[in-house]
Amino acid sequence: MKQSPELLAAHQARRETVDPLLAAAQPLPDPLETDTELSCPGGAALMRNSAADPESWGYTFFAAHESRLLPQVDGPRAFAELLDLWAAQDAFRPGPDSIATITWPSRDTEMSRALVERGFAQQSIFAVRLAPPSAGDGAAAAASPAAADAADAGGVVIRHAGPEDTATVTRLWLEQLHWDARFGYLAIRPSTPARLADEVAEAVGGEEKRAWIAERDGEAVGLMVVQPPEHAGWAANTIRAERPVAYLNCGAVSAGERGGGVGRALARHVHAELDAEGHGAVLLHYTAANPLSGPFWHRCGYRPLLTTWTRGTVG
Q1: What is the pLDDT of residues 17-45, one digit of tens each?
Q2: What is the mean pLDDT of the segment spanning 61-65?
Q3: Residue 247 belongs to domain spanning
Q4: Domain check: are 169 and 100 in the same one?
Q5: Start and end of every N-acetyltransferase domain (predicted)?
């Protein structure tokens, strides 16, 4: 769509002010046939309407119908006006398995009230952990805090997962999906088991993804899956980073073990490895309504980068 350079510059200036870590804003994409262009003084947006592929992995995390607003604004007044223009469109129909969604910088809190007043709630947080300045100096030095955490967690043993762990990784990952599904922002679909099997195969294969398992007394009680930089470009493009960026796909702890230190030991171990390998940042999504996720990941050094606000539910 035609967009003024002045608006893009004002939008970018706002992003840089609220969070300098965010990557530079790009012009709005050319509209698709199903898109609707919206504009007002000081703002422009695309309303992108889509239907999920019921056989895709994404169908677990996305509603059957989605209306997504892609806005660029110079301030709160234009932001609020675009929200109202969006809500007036026929394709804006939040409800069961139909979602209206907008993603915005988490630190731009001046926009939050306009969203809340229009019935939006925080769905998910895209969070970032930056490696400490000393990272990359050697795995042995980096791993020592993880060893202490493992001792605090009652002798938890952490190891890399391989093909022989397929059933274990599937069990832990599926348990995490069921846990997050109760908050209304993902759904266990008929296609979920088959698509999860694809993800697990990548994780235990060790190339497109890497997986770690935490064991206590020989029983697997925790899982972390990470997408390495060569496959995480989509995530890395959201921040300004000079060193490789990874994406954490899954962090799971068995229900009976939550709060017992397993997750902390696992996270410290995995981050120590990634830091020692020279990763500059790790990104992840967590469910905003999950009472355990936010506090846990913040203790691990993550902080909010982008917040997805929604109306409606997945499933």
Answers
A1: 999 999 999 999 999 999 999 999 999 99
A2: 97
A3: 128-306
A4: no
A5: 156-315
Q: First-to-last CA distance in the chain? A: 32
Which residue, among 108, 126, 77, 80, has the nearest Cα to 15 in the 3D structure?
A: 108
- pTM as predicted: 0.93
315, part of any domain? no
Distance CA 199, CA 70 (A): 29
Q: Is 40 strand, coil or helix?
A: strand
Tokens 């469910």 -> residue: 287
Per-residue pLDDT, 155: 85
Local structure of 149: helix, strand or coil: helix
Q: Are residues 19 and 146 in the same domain?
A: no
pLDDT, residue 3, reads 79
Residue 123 predicted with pLDDT over 50: yes
Rounded CA separation 303/102 (Å): 19
List, for residues 191-210, the tens digit of each pLDDT value: 999 999 999 999 999 889 99
pLDDT the model gives residue 154: 72
Q: How many domains does the chain have?
A: 2
User: 217-232, pLDDT tens digit by residue?
Assistant: 999 999 999 999 999 9
Note whether 109 and 253 are same-domain residues.
no
* 66 lies in some domain: yes
161 shares its domain with 184: yes
Measured between alpha carbons, how far is residue 20 from residues 26, 214, 238 in Å?
15, 36, 11
pLDDT of residue 256: 92
CB 312 within 8 A of CB 118: no
Cα(291)–Cα(298) distance, integer angstroms = 12
Residues 190 and 96 placed together within one structural domain of the fold: no
Dist. CA 55–CA 53, nearest whole Å: 5
Asked if residue 314 belongs to a domain, the reply is no
DSSP assignment of 212-263: EEEEETTEEEEEEEEE-GGG-HHHHTTB--SS-EEEEEEEEE-GGGTTTTHH
Residue 311 lies in a domain: no
